[in-house]
Design a protein that fits this description.
By secondary structure, the chain is α+β, with helices and mostly antiparallel strands. It is built from three helices and seven strands; from the N terminus they run H-E-E-E-E-H-E-E-E-H. It has a seven-stranded mixed beta sheet, covered by helices on one side.
């Protein structure tokens, strides 16, 4: 009877440990960027630029791209390395600037949530924002933009 009790206890402990292990947050294949003159979507495979001219008619240019599996692996590694899973929708992300810019709205889907970040441009010294998370977020976006640019060039040839 004690052998049965021991096995039952070990089985219960193993089930508890396995169920208590939380799945790591990873990047899904859905990123979008919306600014006043750019609209990018990985699901649609488009990067649309609009000129905002006040003296001439506005123009639009659409780049088409398709990220490969290797590109998504690179992006997932960048997501992990730059610890974007630590950012939430209320984290103040941005940079200090000397001119007025409209914020960039960036949505990144993971296996657990939709991270919706408003990347802001701060003029005054009074505004507090998370410098470290902002720099890491910028590094991820540079990786992302580089891959999109490279794939759009390859795609158009």
């Amino acid at each position: 009877m004690s052998l049965f009790t021991t096995k039952l206890f070990l089985t219960a402990c193993l089930c508890f440990i396995i169920s208590s292990c939380e799945q790591k947050e990873v990047l899904a294949k859905d990123i979008s960027i919306a600014t006043e003159n750019r609209n990018l979507s990985t699901l649609k495979g488009t990067d649309i630029y609009n000129t905002l001219l006040y003296t001439e008619p506005n123009t639009s240019d659409t780049l088409r791209f398709k990220l490969t599996e290797q590109d998504w692996i690179i992006l997932k590694e960048s997501f992990e390395k730059n610890q974007l899973y630590l950012i939430d929708n209320t984290t103040k992300i941005g940079e200090r600037v000397h001119s007025i810019y409209m914020p960039h709205n960036i949505k990144i889907k993971t296996n657990k949530r939709l991270l919706s970040v408003q990347y802001r441009f701060f003029i005054g010294e009074k505004e507090n924002f998370d410098h470290i998370k902002s720099e890491k977020f910028k590094k991820f976006l540079k990786t992302f933009d580089s891959l999109v640019y490279y794939r759009s060039k390859k795609h158009s040839n």
